[in-house]
Amino acid sequence: MSRTFARYPILMIATLIPLAAGCGRSDQPKTTSAGATPTVSAASTAPTEAEAPGAVTTASYESAESAFNAGRYPEAAQLFTAYTATHAENPWGHYMLGMSAWKIGEPEKALSAFDQALQLDPSHRKSLFNSSRVLLEGGQPKEALERIEKALAQEPMSNEGLRLLGRARYETGDVEGAIGAYHKALSIDERDVWSMNNLGLIYIQQDRSAEALPPLARAVELRGNAPVFQNNLGTALERAGYPTAAAQAYEAAITVDSTYAKASVGLARVTTEQKSETTPVDLAALSSQFQESIETWRGAEVIDSSTAAAVTVSDSSTVSVDTVSDSVLVSGRIVSDSLEECESEEDHN
Fold this sequence. Notes:
There is one protein chain. With 349 residues, this protein is mainly α. It has one domain (58-347): Serine Threonine Protein Phosphatase 5, Tetratricopeptide repeat, CATH 1.25.40. It has helices spanning 58-69, 73-86, 91-103, 107-120, 125-137, 141-154, 159-171, 175-188, 193-205, 209-222, 227-239, 243-256, 261-273, 283-297; strands at 328-330, 333-335. Strands 1-2 form a two-stranded antiparallel ribbon. Strand 1 and strand 2 form a beta hairpin. The two termini are 14 Å apart. 50% of the residues are buried.
């Protein structure tokens, strides 16, 4: 799992890292209504002639897709380049070229390929979503937001799209709008652990670590073997004044991944400080509280995070927030290695 970071345009009090979103993945084609663009993922079966006019012969398309699925991205990029040269009318070929180029670190080529797919099919949802990711990584959140909103107009209940919406809104400075997007994603899928993680990160980065605990506690409850969730929970616990519980979360992250440097740094920090909380934190209760909050969001057509039921922590007014002294100011953004982003590259597809 890769742990690359996006960047935020907001200067935070607490030490921050970039938030990522849009972690949804579908490995199989979805049934669509007549005339709709098939929502085939980058790693899914090649589109049929009915889905994508001008598709290459099975062997030719499959050879390129096989290289992509096997992780041979440079080879896949070459094969899809050749494929699009002879089948320029097929948007799926350009889409897969864009995915391959993105995987090998050529964002300009990727964006060009996605744009070519969109010229052929302006409603190509996967190209809209993944080109928005390229734009977000390139520091163009406003441009990304336009594409995300266009894709969501086609599929308003897309968790993938709502996570990307949360990310883009946050990077354009719309904090409450980002929170609302994650609320809506969770009202659709109450087990969407990436939205929980991203929501927790926003709260941490907004110096609201007590509010980060419920979503992160629930994410860890659902997927305790994800070191990124354990690390982020550890950070929230540490900053909310629960160093003993934070140490346990950091240790859990290291147990899953012994090379996880961020968790090791966090564990060393709380161990060195030798502090302990006066009142133990009940993560199970916080997780349950978060689930109840999701019920209050469910069914709302538009979720306004400023009026949605708030997730609180007992005695939160007395919770202390720790800052990390070695944060670095870069181009108006505070960055640190104490947190982790939401998604891995494999979840982009």
